[in-house]
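Checklist before submission:
- one chain only
- standard amino acids only
- sequence pasted in full

Submission:
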Amino acid sequence: MKSTVENLSPTRIRLAVEVPFDDLKPNLDSAYKTLAQQVRVPGFRPGKVPARVIDQRVGRGTVLQEAVNEALPRLYGEAAREHELQPLGQPEITEITNVEEIVDGSDWHFTAEVDVRPEITLPELDGIAVAVDDVAVGDEEVQEQLDELRERFSTLVGIERAVQNDDYVSIDLTSTVDGAEFEGGSAKGRSYVVGSDDFIAGLDDALLGKSSGDTAEFVSTLRHGDHAGEQAQVVVTVKSVKVKELPEADDEFAQLASEFDTIDELTADLRERLGRVKALEQGAQARDRLLEHLIETVEFPLPESAVTSEVEYREHDLVHSLGHDDALFERYLEAQGKTREEFDAEMRESAEKSVRVQFILDAIAEKTQVQIGDSELTEYLVRQAAQYQMPPQEFANQIVQSGNLPMLVADIRRNKALAVVLENAAVTDASGNPVDLAALDSELAADTSDVNDEDDDEAEDD
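Returned file contents:
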């Protein structure tokens, strides 16, 4: 078998293959064997029909077509390996010898076009300079954490005054459309936080200024249910008004809400916890800025098929999450404040960035000879299984059966490659102090989504 490669672009090639007839012989024999089982000829048992009889019954061309179709993947794969190609996706067969022209002993040929991985020239990976923000915990942040803790121990206390925003009220409510009540339009003793606007449109305005025992009527455009978009007459009665009362931030509260004896000890612990969180955020920022640096400095053309595949994957994921509902998609665009053209442009830009990151990290993994051991894969599967609340073996079986194992391994390898570069980067904060990223190592190993922008597909070799 002879083959040649023609570069159509930096990311697409044409592979021309000339095949001796003898290379088709195994597939021709297989085709005759398959057809012998299918053809029913009087005087011959199934599977025992001679080749000359099959030619008479179904035609030599049919047999050759069966053999060629079966042989193409094998022959294409052999030619691709011979030229050490790194194809992306399935090839497009652009030309093939007509089976009627194939005779015993004659050569035949085919050509295939396919996108290939671009050649990537990486910069020096050691000592890349990355600047991150300082880790600074402000007093207001500590107070916010303390207030959130106090919220968890808060109580609701009844109050005799007119309703204000943020009050907790108990209400009876009845809604009618064209004078008739409807399912879901009434509520008895419902708790509602005034100002939340998460129930019926106009309810907040109707409640403000009312007191316990007062009744208000108003017209509302319904948001949900069978009558969504219709006008409803609503009657609401205030049954009680309560406010949230927070405990005092004192030593007694510290003993109630924590293992500490004093409020000063509790506050110091909150400050320390915030510092650890910010250190991890600082590490994540270093990772993101390192990726941005690589994206900006490593230039190469993107294969169109890889970008298209990424866009299609993201669109399918979004459409699936919206239940394949066109109206929901339109409302989604409206909520985002985007036109379809703007959405498509942003989707493609994001997909291009994701694919570019994948190729860069694959090149780094190859250059640094990153390998994924069985123990690393097992550890990752166990963590993911716990996240999905599944037995590890069941989760692993689903990954294998769905064909997602190569993608998963590729993602782990990319993150490991990024961790290698990040470990050798010169990371400093805004004040010029060196930053220790040791705490980030486990985060990088555990999280594959950040590298590929949420749950992405990949441009994986076929």
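Reviewer check: Confidence is low (pLDDT under 50) at residues 443-462.
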